[in-house]
Design goal:
This protein is an alpha/beta fold and 399 residues long. The chain has helices at 20-30, 40-51, 63-73, 91-98, 117-130, 149-159, 211-221, 255-265, 268-285, 319-328, 344-347, 357-365, 377-390, and strands at residues 56-60, 81-84, 102-105, 136-140, 162-166, 174-175, 178-179, 187-191, 204-208, 225-226, 243-244, 291-292, 300-301, 307-311, 366-369.
Length: 399
């Protein structure tokens, strides 16, 4: 087997949790009169809105589409500036480029791994002097831990930008006692990819308190078309009439996906509890190893989408060696994420290594361990024992 060949993992870094109720919900949708654009979608949206204590939820085909449409609905276009964090999936930055805007990055807080409020404040002051303030800042709740949203809202109100919260990792998480999406951000995006907290296979959603923004999102996800006669520019000739009122896209979620999502949402508390228990147990099992464990904060509750540790370069073998050893043992570790500004496509835009040192330092040492609701204590013991061997650390004493 060559160094480039993928090694199958018997224990993946994440895995969806599908039960009989989920299967029954999808079967019921399959046997209904609607496979798409039927009643399951608004039912899922209503459940999602209730869960996140917000009046409007707009479900779409995936979270990348959700970010793109949210940028459009917030008025992002050519000549605008959108800032985000380097530590995220590329979609958090690409969404601005889809709209013709330029992308900028703000370094992370090494403590939380989220966008640094202090670094943002410095950059905003500089941008105000040069007249290049952002229209939107995409704030990422990395690994499921909500960002410093209260402080970010204060900066947004002072400098006049909109907050688009990328909570793709944070469905059901909470901040200052309230669900993410319910306050602080102008719009919040969730992902329902197969490895996320709640899955619809593929899928995403935008939640907002702004009724006009929600209506723009609904138009954008379906070709910019409405059949609501009250919104027509002319008196309709008959009931078949529809109007394209803006240039939109086909980003609709099917009823099959929505039925699965609604079923999954009913189990969200149980899935959160299982993820949290897994994270707590990892903390205890890994306490004696030369690792920096994931951050915690008393004023917010993580959804625990990822359990990402940081290796101590001075006390452990190189990360690539540890990664390889884990994969060869069938443990599906991963790395989240390569900083966006280091991608070749972003290098062509002028970004360079060294631009965001905290993000680069984090990336150089991070490793994501398996974590998912159906993970057993035996699974975790196997992960920890394999990691201990890969780090060449002695076995822990009995506790």
């Amino acid at each position: 087997m060559s160094a480039r060949d993928p090694i199958p993992a018997t224990l993946p870094y994440s895995r969806q949790w599908i039960d009989d109720d989920d299967v029954a919900a999808v079967v019921a949708a399959l046997r209904s009169d609607f496979l798409t654009q039927g009643p399951a979608l608004p039912a899922f949206e209503a459940a999602l809105a209730r869960r996140h204590a917000v009046p409007h939820a707009v479900a779409v085909s995936n979270a990348t589409s959700a970010l793109h449409l949210a940028c459009l609905a917030l008025g992002v276009g050519p000549g605008d500036h959108v800032w985000t964090t380097p530590i995220s999936f590329v979609a958090s930055a690409n969404c601005a480029r889809y709209c013709g805007a330029s992308v900028g990055f703000v370094d992370i807080d090494p403590r939380t791994r989220n966008l640094s409020v202090d670094a943002l404040a410095v950059r905003l002051a500089q941008a105000a002097r040069s007249g290049r303030l952002p229209k939107v800042v995409v704030v990422v709740d990395f690994a499921g831990l909500p960002a410093d949203l209260r402080e970010l809202r204060g900066l947004a109100d002072s400098y006049g930008f909109r907050i688009l919260e990328d909570a793709s990792h944070a469905t059901g998480a909470s901040y200052l006692g309230r669900p993410v999406g319910s306050a602080w951000a102008d719009a919040t995006v969730f992902s329902f990819h197969a490895v996320k907290i709640v899955t619809t296979g593929e899928g995403g959603a935008v939640v907002t308190r702004d009724a006009e923004l929600a209506e723009r999102l609904r138009l954008l996800r379906s070709h910019g078309i409405t059949r609501d006669a009250s919104r027509f520019g002319e008196t309709p000739e008959g009931p078949w009439v529809y109007e394209q009122q803006m240039l939109g896209y086909n980003c609709r979620m099917t009823d099959l996906q929505a039925a699965l999502g609604a079923s999954q949402l009913r189990r969200l508390d149980a899935m959160h509890a299982a993820r949290g228990a897994c994270a707590d147990r990892y903390d205890a099992l890994l306490a004696d190893l030369p690792l920096r464990l994931p951050p915690r904060a008393a004023d917010r509750k993580s959804a625990w989408h990822l359990y990402a540790v940081e290796l101590d370069p001075g006390a452990t073998p190189p990360r690539a060696e540890v990664y390889r050893a884990m994969q060869e043992a069938g443990i599906g570790v991963n790395v989240h994420y390569i900083p966006i500004h280091l991608q070749p496509d972003y290098a062509r835009l002028g970004f360079r290594r060294g631009d965001f040192p905290n993000a680069e330092l984090y990336y150089a040492s991070t490793l994501t361990l398996p974590l998912f609701p159906a993970m057993t204590p035996k699974d975790q013991d196997r992960v920890v024992a394999t990691l201990r061997a890969a780090l060449r650390a002695p076995a822990a004493s009995a506790r």
